[in-house]
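Hi U.,

Before I forget, here's the chain from the pilot set. I'm dumping it here mostly so it's searchable later in email.
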Amino acid sequence: MDRYIALDEAREAVRDRGVAYGKPVDSFNKLAKLWSAYKDTEFTVHDVGIMLMMLKMARLMNDETHEDSWVDIAGYAAVTCEAITDNQDSQRLPVGPQNIVTMSKD
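Structure:
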């Protein structure tokens, strides 16, 4: 499969999943909370993306030529980037006078 076709297929899959499942950051945060509760250790949005890609890698160990898994890894990489950015943006304070720290001279 040509790399551009693979990326186009990943883009299509990501678009379709977004319609069905919502924003990646929301799904990844939910998964991180569920996994954290289940394993009693903290998981992050980063961990979710990495572990979903590892799932596909494990499947590739059975058949490294399975194109769908390679396409899915590309898609997971893309939505992980988006989720990380959205998660970081949601943790930033909004810009405004109430959030500006001023230094006073003593």
